[in-house]
Amino acid sequence: MAAVAAQISKKRKVADGVFYAELNEFLTRELAEDGYAGVEVRVTPARTEIIIRATHTQNVLGEKGRRIRELTTLVQKRFKFPENAVELYAERVQNRGLCAIAQCESVKFKLLNGLAVRRACYGVVRFVMESGAKGCEVVVSGKVRAARAKAMKFADGFMIHSGNPARDFITTAVRHVDLRQGVLGIKVKIMLDSDPTGRNGPKQTLPDIVTILEPKEENPIIEPSAQDFRPAAPAAEPVEA
To answer: Coil, helix or strand for 95?
Structure first.
């Protein structure tokens, strides 16, 4: 019985992962120009809630909410949800300078509009660092200028590449640009700084940060003194007459 339950649980996890991947790919293609920055799926007993994070939420909603209703209908028909069982919401990204997906899309559209690679990448790196990131790295690979493919890396600040903190502090995004000379690959990595509020980064700090506390204030020693640290002798019990 336990083996059957584990098999069903594994199948459900795989199905959830496939659903999320397909939904993310669909929204990436559909909302690329509206600053799409990720999706979150919340399953409740009543309905499935899909929260779309974007920089231009008004464009996602559309005029009088028309576009979000169209997207809801498309998702409902594609994944065979019952009527009124799925709901789509749009949420604004608080700080788009710290969102790797938004910055990757920004580089992509700059290159599509004919801007030079160096200028586009340095502009994004500077904007990310001014937004409060700890480090930023942009890699563009492919036939950038000559016929031979190469990779160009633009980095600033501090960046970690391994260990568990890399999962918490680093956001990564990859996009592909179809240009006349071929396909360029864009990879943006942003290292977030620790934030106690949890808005602009993880609440925890990096494990190698050492905090040195100020020493406690003590009374100055003017003259030699002795102190007895031995436990006090128990008091003698009174003897009854």
So the answer is: coil
